[in-house]
Amino acid sequence: MQSLTSGGRRIEVEWFAASGGSAEIARGSSARPAVLLLHGADGLTYAEGYRLAARTIAASGYHIAFVHYLDRTGDRRVAYGRLQQDFPLWAESVRDAVEWLADQPDTDAQRLGIVGISLGAALAFTTAAVEPRVRAIVDYFGPLPDELARERPRLPPTLILHGGVDPIVPVSHARALERLLQEQGTPHEIRIYEGQGHALTDSAQLDAAARVTRFLGRHLQAASAEGATGFAGA
Asked: What is the SS3 assignment for 62?
């Protein structure tokens, strides 16, 4: 277990080193793209599921930092009565986590991404709106924060994955994000899984995992060829 400091609080980070990525080895590069993994409002309730996702992505050649951002407020799960007042604190901690990730050995600071689940995806959008080093977002069932819906900042390439009958974050959030990305001309992909709720099961889960691998490969593995500014093409 590693850690970073944010707002004077210790934030634990589970580190999963890249274990694949033959293209990186072929190019003779030791610096790997790296990804923050942000859990949902459930915190570590389903930690083993998040860890399985981290290991799967790491096997494709990415360093993964699974950030326990609720440590900032001392919570194990989100206290919904404090959600609005705590969200800016968690967002600050995620920005600090991007800074921390960029400084890790063998990490390419120009090829950073975020995989966010539900609340974690909302934090990914908020972070990427002000942090240009975030070059790709994977959004699982994320709500588009009201502030971003109003201000419409430019976001990096985004993969949107959402259940068609999600009772917690309605699919309208996915459609609103899609419209924002279309307006900006930002590379994006969207997959709405009909009949799926606020989690993916069976074949939908496998399909989503394959899409994540392809998407990150397109926008992070190839990002170094695009330079330090701008986004990788679709």
From this structure: coil
Conformation bin of residue 204: beta by default, left when phi > 0, alpha when psi is -120 to 50: alpha
Residue 18 vs residues 26, 59, 156, 178, 221: alpha-carbon distances, Å: 15, 6, 23, 30, 12
Q: Where are the domains of the chain?
A: 2-224
Sequence-ordered strand ranges (E) for 32-143: 32-38, 63-67, 107-117, 134-140
- DSSP label at residue 199: B
Among the four given CATH numbers 3.20.20.70, 1.10.10.60, 3.90.10.10, 3.40.50.1820, the one describing domain 2-224 = 3.40.50.1820
φ/ψ of 35, rounded to 5, equals -135, 135
CA distances from 214 to 74, 125, 168 (A): 36, 20, 27
Give per-residue pLDDT as tens, 49-101.
Answer: 999 999 999 999 999 999 999 999 999 999 999 999 999 999 999 999 999 99
d(CA 61, CA 24): 8
Query: pLDDT tens across 139-178, in order?
Result: 999 999 999 999 999 999 999 999 999 999 999 999 999 9
Q: Is the pLDDT of residue 17 over 80?
A: yes
Burial 32-43 (b: 16+ CB within 10 A, else e): bbbbbbbbbbbb
Three-class DSSP category at 188: strand
110 φ, ψ (degrees, to nearest 5) = -95, 5
